[in-house]
Design a protein that fits this description.
Layout lengths: L4 H22 L10 H7 L20 H10 L5
Length: 78
């Protein structure tokens, strides 16, 4: 059967990444990751060739609370 929810979730992450690379390439840009310290280095859970496929990860060394603090400092809406 081809109805695995896990496989569908991984496919969505891979399609999203392909779309991000297309858009970035069209604008001479790069794909920036949004994973924090726990997501990228603690748990280490990501979809191979999906949300883990980024060019840079500027907040990878930050904890989640540090990311929230940065958002508050930069006045980013929740």
């Amino acid at each position: 059967k081809n109805n695995s929810e896990h496989a569908f979730a991984n496919s969505r992450a891979r399609l999203r990444m392909a779309t991000l690379y297309q858009v970035a390439g069209s604008h001479n840009g790069i794909v920036v990751g949004t994973g924090n310290k726990v997501e990228d280095f603690g748990v280490g859970f990501y979809t191979k060739y999906g949300d883990g496929g980024v060019d840079i990860s500027p907040i990878a060394d930050c904890t989640k609370s540090q990311v929230w603090e940065m958002g508050e400092f930069l006045k980013i809406d929740q």
